[in-house]
């Protein structure tokens, strides 16, 4: 692809050019749950200068192409390989990070909540997100992903319909989790700690930003690659 146009969707752009996700996050352009709309529509709704954004995006794309990057075309990989990648990369990250980060979220709420009232909402939203993602991961690993692997080995219309129905529920879960992350970004001023923040406060915000980034990539792979192929 020589360059991107406003007709391309954020989801399709990120498939080809993963680093575009950084630009989209900076501009608060959704490339996961709501990433199927043409970029031109999205920037119009968000009152973003389309010409400037496309220039910046395509310049970054040209520079990136000149560098040595190893990318994986997940559309061309077996479904089972993509599933294993999601489980061993993104689910494994959540299993380790969610409990550990939760302790930091609770700590700064306990210590700084009186002077920073938004930390109460942060604490509540984070724990909602944690429970949702833990339950979601279990459902995928124990119910839906085995069905997809079975379909890959022994395809049938009946099994495919069953998977599509299950995927619809998973996409609804993704929407809910994505909305929580958007709310977390809003109440933390883009995960920017206040000037008087202690080290734990700063670590918490930095790890929340990492969690957002990993989750967006996670949802993108499921919604726009795995589920779309089915």
From TrEMBL:
Hemerythrin-like domain segment(s): 83-230
Main location: cytoplasm
Name this polypeptide is given: Iron-sulfur cluster repair di-iron protein
Subcellular location: Cytoplasm
Superkingdom assignment: Bacteria
Encoding gene per record: ric
Keyword Iron set for record: yes
Keywords, alphabetical: Cytoplasm, Iron, Metal-binding
Cross-referenced Pfam families: Hemerythrin, ScdA_N
